């Protein structure tokens, strides 16, 4: 989504803008055509290390938010279970009181 377009017009541009447009045109020649070509290009230019860049931060990020999600789920589950059991206990006690009297 952020790669340069195939053609960049530098008509009417002067100085730094024209130079930037020319550099963009050079970069546009190396646009990615899909996932396979992207992986192949990264493999050729940077090797396996290039394909694994960002893996550790992403794993850390995912682990933190997974832990937060599990904590929230389990806390809510226990809270709702306790409320349910309290309600059952009250209704059971009411039934027992009625039968005993």
From TrEMBL:
Membrane topology category: Multi-pass membrane protein
Alphabetized InterPro entries for the sequence: MCP_dom_sf, MCP_transmembrane
Subcellular location: Membrane
Keyword Magnesium assigned: no
Top-level taxon in the UniProt lineage: Eukaryota
Solcar repeat segments: 6-79
Membrane-crossing residue ranges in chain numbering: 60-80
Keywords attached to this entry: Membrane, Transmembrane, Transmembrane helix, Transport
Pfam families: Mito_carr
Family: Belongs to the mitochondrial carrier (TC 2.A.29) family.
Protein name: Mitochondrial substrate carrier family protein
Organism for this UniProt entry: Sphagnum jensenii
